[in-house]
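Deliverable D2.4 — example input (structure tokens):
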């Protein structure tokens, strides 16, 4: 893919990296990218054999892209990982990095010049493991590189799972998996490999995350250009993301649900007036549950900036299927289905709700590409569900990974699904629940997060949304709900971050001062919202200081980890 682009248009821009203010820092053309990648590959071949693992400890941008392609040239398995000083918490990244190092035993580390000299205590592994800084490698080495002999079945990378429900596992992805996945995304937005040279994608997602890597590789796959900034740039000032989409005329950009909420909350009316989003055709939303209210708020806030609701591309994916599973739409596809709450929770049936009936809005996450097929299966009986019923989403096709690195038991359990009556398979068991409606996929939750109350299947994300909307002091996308009690009655625990500058204070008979919120007031609001909307009792409410709720590297709430830390007294509560 890279050699084709470098040969056909060597002087065309492949990648632009931006600084924290949105200004250009570096630009690299396809010819230069190919030469640099070959040089780094030659340097690696002097250090490790083919099949060795190369740890990629690099920020988004030119060096990461160079290192990733260099691994393919060197026939080395790329392992993208978070930097020890990542955007979502130093300790969280450090612990995850150490776990990945122990699991994949890398033979070489590709990192920044600053991290090359880290001492033996570095979480990047034993200091004796060779370390290379891609930008310091002599490009003259490229001339002596022999062509790789790898095929579509050769392992390209280990994509470590986000760890939202368990410890991260290394998903084995082949060269074929990667290109099939990129082709599926391209088809979903009406593009074709190598034939979209005017295509521009803007990304701030970390490349060690499955969606971040895909959004970084999509422009080179199409022959276009990638405009890249760091996650911290986006988190510090979300307007830089949208301003960059405007400035570079980007047609494509992707983000999790929380990012669209953050733009709605933090970008001022004056900033919105200066941004033109008419050219943004594909605003992919994925990596965490897609909320209808988030899409509505964003579209309303940025309509005067030229953003159209039709640009939204709610999608579904997971690392085990190389991220992209669904997202394409046809004219007339329902964006949101309002399902009767009673039928959905008690019988797992999807029935349209009347105007006055309690309902749950479900966002359609698009159609599957031709190289994937899905089954909706009862996870207990392993029999296909009837149409209009919720079941576990099972997948098969070219995107599906080979399994987990060094973990045959987990591989068999997740990638070895077979239907009970016909033994049809193997299928990837996603552990996600959903249904198909007129060819479009809808996701309702996860099998291991379900809370069963009086025979009803209640999804924690529904309760979390109600909690977020119960009081202004509760932060959006920063709530965890899970089962809690003594076993005699099913109740839930609510753990929620507060927004800045709110401080939770215990009532002492005096009126709270500016910026303070009464614990009794906000607790009462939370309990009332959960009871009124879901008929579920709340056993415990815990408020955390901003930035304290356990999340994955992609920003997803870690409910199991939150529950464990609460039981151990490890949460940073008010």
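Example output (designed residues):
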């Amino acid at each position: 893919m890279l050699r084709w682009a470098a040969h056909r248009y060597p002087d065309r821009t492949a990648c632009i990296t931006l600084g924290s203010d949105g200004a250009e820092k570096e630009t690299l053309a396809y010819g230069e990218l190919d030469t640099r990648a070959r040089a780094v590959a030659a340097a690696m071949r002097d250090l490790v054999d083919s099949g060795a693992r190369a740890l990629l400890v690099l920020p988004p941008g030119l060096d990461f892209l160079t290192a990733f392609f260099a691994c393919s040239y060197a026939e080395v398995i790329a392992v993208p990982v978070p930097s020890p000083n990542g955007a979502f918490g130093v300790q969280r990244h450090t612990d995850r990095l150490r776990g990945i190092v122990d699991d994949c035993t890398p033979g070489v580390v590709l990192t920044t010049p600053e991290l090359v000299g880290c001492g033996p205590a570095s979480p990047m592994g034993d200091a004796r493991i060779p370390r290379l800084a891609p930008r310091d490698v002599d490009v003259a080495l490229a001339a002596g590189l022999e062509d790789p002999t790898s095929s579509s079945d050769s392992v390209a990378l280990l994509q470590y799972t986000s760890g939202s429900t368990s410890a991260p596992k290394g998903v084995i992805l082949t060269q074929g998996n990667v290109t099939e996945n990129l082709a599926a995304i391209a088809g979903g937005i009406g593009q074709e490999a190598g034939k979209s040279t005017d295509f521009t994608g803007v990304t701030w997602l970390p490349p060690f995350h499955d969606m971040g890597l895909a959004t970084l590789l999509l422009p080179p796959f199409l022959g276009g250009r990638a405009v890249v900034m760091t996650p911290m740039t986006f988190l510090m000032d979300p307007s830089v993301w949208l301003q960059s989409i405007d400035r570079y005329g980007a047609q494509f950009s992707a983000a999790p649900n929380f990012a669209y909420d953050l733009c709605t909350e933090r970008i001022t009316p004056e900033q919105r007036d200066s941004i033109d989003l008419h050219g943004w055709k594909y605003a992919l939303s994925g990596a965490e549950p897609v909320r209808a209210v988030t899409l509505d708020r964003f579209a309303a806030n940025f309509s005067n900036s030229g953003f159209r609701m039709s640009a939204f591309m709610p999608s579904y994916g997971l690392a085990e299927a190389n991220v992209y599973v669904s997202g394409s739409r046809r004219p007339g596809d329902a964006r949101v289905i309002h399902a009767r709450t009673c039928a959905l929770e008690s019988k797992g049936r999807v029935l349209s709700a009347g105007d006055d009936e309690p309902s749950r809005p479900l966002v359609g996450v698009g159609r599957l590409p031709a190289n994937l097929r899905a089954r909706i299966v009862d996870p207990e009986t392993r029999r296909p569900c009837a149409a209009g019923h919720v079941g576990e989403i099972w997948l098969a096709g070219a995107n599906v990974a080979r399994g987990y690195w060094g973990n045959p038991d987990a591989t068999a359990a997740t990638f070895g699904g077979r239907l009970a009556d016909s033994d049809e398979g193997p299928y990837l068991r996603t552990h996600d629940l959903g249904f198909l409606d007129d060819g479009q996929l809808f996701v309702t939750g996860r099998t291991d997060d379900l809370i069963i109350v009086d025979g009803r299947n209640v999804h924690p994300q529904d309760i979390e949304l109600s909690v977020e909307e119960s009081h202004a002091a509760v932060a959006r996308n920063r709530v965890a709900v899970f089962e809690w009690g003594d076993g005699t009655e099913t109740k839930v625990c609510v753990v929620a971050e507060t927004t800045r500058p709110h401080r939770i204070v215990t009532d002492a008979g005096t009126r709270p001062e500016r910026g303070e919120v009464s614990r009794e007031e906000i607790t009462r609001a939370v309990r009332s919202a959960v009871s009124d909307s879901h008929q579920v009792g709340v056993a415990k409410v815990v408020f955390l200081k901003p930035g304290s709720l356990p999340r994955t590297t992609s920003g997803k709430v870690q409910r199991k980890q939150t529950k464990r830390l609460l039981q151990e007294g490890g949460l940073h509560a008010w």
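The longest strand covers residues 474-484.
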